[in-house]
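The records we work with from here on pair a chain with its fold. Here is one such record, which you should read through line by line:
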Amino acid sequence: MSEKSVSAAAAPQKNVSERASDAFVAYVLDLCKVKKTQSDLRTGLGLPVERCNYLHRYLVPRLPERMHPDARRTHYAVAALIAARPRAARETDAHAANGQSKPEWYQRANLGAALAQAVNKQIIKPDSAEGDLHLMARQSSQAIHPRLPALTRHLLTGGVAVDWAVLLEDLAWWNRDRDRIATRWLEAYFRTTATEPEQDRAGSPCHLTEEN
């Protein structure tokens, strides 16, 4: 399938008032205000689109009919991840949605930066976070998707925000642009951890593994 069929919500955009990825995230956040809908969306955690039967009624009307499979799965995955946020994260997102402007796209935190923030807050050990990043850098998005529910919940529970729109775009393009995106994650990780003295980042006993 050609690049043209990739959803606009996944494709990088410039000079627009609102990115399509942000619009999709806002749509899902609004859906999650209804508990039944939130519960339905949560059933898609870590699953391929073909097993997300309860999500179709909410996402099919929102997404284009012709869409790259990677982009489609990513939209379903991110919708499920948003629905599965712990209560504290839902309250934080609701507060942030009330008139708080977003920074420039290049300043927004990707998954590497989020992991670095978790290291700086001693939620995750540095070796564990770096190991996760290097492992994901070698994997396809199909291998990464099942890891995301435990990883994002660990971050959110520790008070580290996840920028869903950035994650959406990165994962949608991952299989076709993995080296560039993985490099951005690693650069953001080391740039962010460098803002904290090493002695303040001893880490906690938490270690994210495949089994979490």
In short: Residues 164-193 form the longest helix (30 residues). DSSP finds ten helices and no strands in the chain. Residues 1-15, 198-212 have pLDDT under 50 and may be disordered. Residues 59 and 170 are 19 Å apart (CA to CA).
